Amino acid sequence: MKPCVKNKKLIAWLALDALDVRQAQTLREHIATCEGCRCYLAEISNVTKRLAAAEAIPDVQTSESFHRKVAGRLRETKPDSIGEIVAAYLAGLNWRVALPAVAALVVIGVALGAWRQPPKMAVSPHPATQITLVTSTDFDLAPTLANYQRVANQSLAGLDALLTQQGNQALPPMPIYTASTRTLANGSF
C-alpha cells in the first residue's frame, strides 16, 4: 500500500526525529489510521536504524561514474502526477468538517447573490408607453417606426393595411429645388 503523497517527506523527518512536537503528534495521529503511511514509516525507520548502526568508513572514495549514475537515476524519477497529489489531498481531508464547510460557503454565496439583486417590483406600464389597440378604422397614425412596430405587434394584417393606406395617400406639396433655384436661394455667388 502506498503512503499519502503529502506525508512522505514528513514521515522521513519523523523517522529522523526532526519534526516539532505538534507536527509529530498530528502525523502520528494520521499514521494510526493510514496503513500505507504506517508501512512507509516502518520502512524508513528500519533504514535510519541501519544507517545509524553502520560504521562510518572515512577513507572511502567514490568514483565519478558512481556520481553520474546516481544523478542519472535521480533525473529519471518522475514526480508524482497532479492527479495523484489531488487524490492524496482529498483522501487526507476530514470530510466531517469539509462537507459542512462547503455547504456553508454555498449558502453564503446564494445569500449574497440574492442580496445583491435589486428587489423585484410590480411592473406597471408607464403612461407614455401604454399600448393602445389600433382598430382598422384608426389608420391616421403618423408614419413613424414606433407606430409601425405597435401595429405589427397587434397583427401583421393591420400593419399591411396601414402601410397600404399610407402608401395610397397623396404626398403633401413640397418645394422642388433645382440647381438654378438653389443658387438664388443662397444669395450672392
Which features characterize this protein?
189 residues; mainly alpha; 9 helices; 62% helix
Explain what the structure shows:
It is a single chain. This protein has helices at 8-15, 21-33, 35-53, 64-76, 82-92, 95-116, 145-154, 156-168, 179-186. With 189 residues, it is an all-alpha fold. Among the domains are: 5-53 and 82-116; 131-168, no CATH class. It is elongated, with a radius of gyration of 43 Å. The termini are far apart. The mean pLDDT is 76.
What order do the helices and strands come in, and which of them pair?
Elements: H1 8-15, H2 21-33, H3 35-53, H4 64-76, H5 82-92, H6 95-116, H7 145-154, H8 156-168, H9 179-186
Instruction: Compute the number of helices.
Output: 9
**First-last Cα distance:** 103 Å
Strand content: under 5%
Largest sheet: none
Q: Look at the structure and give the mean pLDDT.
A: 76
Any low-confidence stretches, pLDDT <50, length ≥5? none
Overall geometric form: elongated
Work out the radius of gyration: 43 Å
Summed up:
This protein is 62% helix and 0% strand. The protein has 189 residues and is mainly alpha-helical.
